[in-house]
Amino acid sequence: MQITSPVESSQLNVVGEASVSWGKVRGIVLLSLTFLLSIASASVKVAEADSQRPNFIVILCDNLGYGDVGCFGSQAHRTPNIDQLAASGLKLTNFYSTSGVCTPARASLQTGRYPRRVGLHETDIDGAVLRPVSHNGLSSNEITIAEVLKQRGYATTLIGKWHLGDQPQFLPTRQGYDEYFGLPYSDDMVGDKRPGWPPLPLMEGEDVIEAPVDRNLLTKRYTERVIQFIETHQQQPFFVLLSHAMPGSTPQPFASEEFRGKSLNGAWGDSVEEIDWSTGQIVNKLEQLGIDDETLIVWTSDNGAPRFRTPAGSNAPFATWGYSATEGGQRVPCVVHWPTKVPAGSVSDVLCSMMDILPTCARLANTSLPSNHIIDGYDLSEVLLGRKNSSPYDAFYYYLRGDLQAVRGPQWKLQLTNGQLFDMRSDPLEQVDVSAEHPEIVAALQDFAARARDELGDGEQIGTGQGTAGYEASPLPRLLR
Ligand SMILES: [Ca+2]
Q: 400 and 374, same structural domain?
């Protein structure tokens, strides 16, 4: 959330007091000259950067846990390609989703805003996530990452899961994506699960092209589509959101024949290892075309692994599960890769989130965001480029549906449900409550929580900055024609 920090306020005061004495006026003249010179050099920089619009590929897994890939500690899954991506890029170890479930998290990734600001933290009709034939979807008033990049001449595509409304006016094609190929919602929302739900549709643009789709082939087909898109658009800047269906929402995820039954961790492991293969295919293609240095890849997940009757995914070292407002539910693995720009083999524990992807891509693409439009995320480019190792966040908010559960700063986390305070640097597993030793930190975080309640809302309390989801009175199922 954009709350002016004390440092920024005092800087503003210095400028305000400067018009008092002649000495200070001279200072202003000098400052103005410096200011003009800095504008002149800034325009040169802008002009240089204008010819450098890097490609962006965001690879988003579904329900893949913090401990599900080798570079984040998995012993169960073989993920050499993702590990290599981390070894030649940056590992973000304190990267958060804004929710433990799909729809709110994806609303934040698309808009850079907290789910309550978008009105998709939950809906009256569907609950925690949108369902097939939903009345709701991402409002057309929202500005997506694709819309931001499209205005800078980027070719944009979403390949995979959307989950922000299945009615035509809510689809990716109406939200800045030139092309769309994938499922409009989760892989477990199949036709025979509830009355009125259609056979699981695979969509191309706004049409259903197959139903029910063979889920075993999704990772493979999505990967082929990404490679095709990269080949077609290699001469212009492009933005690809590869939003995997896997490992997804079933205890027995899907994989193609080459991977089925091959991992040491059942169907979950098979699907993760196929995603690893997919990642390698994409990196290979970029290298083959000689555009890997011009392409920034963000590799992450939308929320932690959920608890099934037989545990499959892993959020290790965190003990909690997906679908909750906890570390296991919201802290996700994140790797950023951009050869020659992002320092190879770097690791950062800076507190950051999926809301930062939009403002960071906007900055790196040298484009601005509408000035009267609030973005809760931050430009993280200085951290990615290895020039800075401090968090832009004063406070990050954990919401369970609409309920504020916890608030975290770069070091401390206050659990609002029981008043416990944890030092996330020395005690990331939240084992020692230190609230009694640090009442001033508890008070400061309580103050941030109060601001979040005012601005974003909490439970039944409506925030002043809270938004509304899009609404369709007569939703229809997405059917094969
Ligand atoms: Ca999910």
A: no
For residues 321-329, give the mean pLDDT: 97
The domain tally of the chain equals 2
Q: Which domain holds residue 432?
A: 396-462
Residue 104: asked if its preceding bond is cis (omega within 30°), the reply is no
Check whether residue 407 and residue 379 sit in a common domain. Answer: no
Residues 426, 319 within the same domain: no
Q: Which of 322, 357, 384 is the endpoint of a domain?
A: 384
Burial class of residue 319, CB neighbours in 10 A (0-12, 13-18, 19+): exposed
Average pLDDT score over residue span 146-172 = 98
Domain of 64, CATH number, reads 3.40.720.10
**pLDDT over 90 percentage in the chain:** 87
**pLDDT at residue 358 in the model:** 98
Catalytic residue among 71, 102, 334, 352: 102
Query: Catalytic annotation on 163?
Result: yes
> Mean pLDDT over residues 261-287, rounded?
98
**Residues ≥6 apart with Cβ < 8 Å to 256:** 216, 217, 219, 220, 274
Mean pLDDT computed over 201-223: 98
The kind and range of the H/E element at 373 are none
Distance CA 267, CA 273 (A): 10
Same domain, 306 and 444: no
Q: What is the H or E stretch that residue 331 is in?
A: none
Q: What number of other Cβ atoms are within 10 A of residue 263's Cβ? A: 19
pLDDT at 218: 98
Q: Please compute the mean of the pLDDT values over residues 131-146 and round it to a whole number.
A: 98
Q: Which of 163, 233, 244, 337 is catalytic?
A: 163
State yes or no: is 102 an active-site residue: yes
Write down the mean pLDDT value for the chain.
91
